[in-house]
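Below is a filled-in request sheet from our internal design queue. Each sheet records the structural input a requester submitted and the sequence that came back. We keep these sheets so that new team members can see what a complete request looks like end to end.

REQUESTER: design group, bay 2
PRIORITY: normal
MODE: inverse folding
CHAIN LENGTH: 89
BACKBONE (tokenized):
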């Protein structure tokens, strides 16, 4: 049986848009919703800083991150795995 106080850990998926910082990458999350009145699809983007301990992510990688305790003022997620590496042109 589940405990009433247990929380599911929130996972997010996004694309790395910046890796300039040490042990930190910025990912962009794209959500699409239908407008309730006009029935048009709206695209919303949000940027989240995640903790990358091994500096393994590069710009363009698709990653999964999980919510954790606050690691710094703006970091509340850490890297779980890299789904797809960026293709070099």
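RETURNED SEQUENCE:
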């Amino acid at each position: 049986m589940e405990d009433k106080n247990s929380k599911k850990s929130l996972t997010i998926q996004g694309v790395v848009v910046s890796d300039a910082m040490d042990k930190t990458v910025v990912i962009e999350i794209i959500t699409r919703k239908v407008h309730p009145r006009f029935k048009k699809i709206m695209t919303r983007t949000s940027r989240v800083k995640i903790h990358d301990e091994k500096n393994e992510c590069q710009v363009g990688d698709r990653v999964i991150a999980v919510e954790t305790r606050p690691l710094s003022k703006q970091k509340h997620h850490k890297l779980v795995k890299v789904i797809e590496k960026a293709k070099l042109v």
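SHEET NOTES:
- The domain at 9-82 is CATH 2.40.50.140 (OB fold (Dihydrolipoamide Acetyltransferase, E2P)).
- Residues 30 and 84 are 17 Å apart (CA to CA).
FILED BY: M.R.
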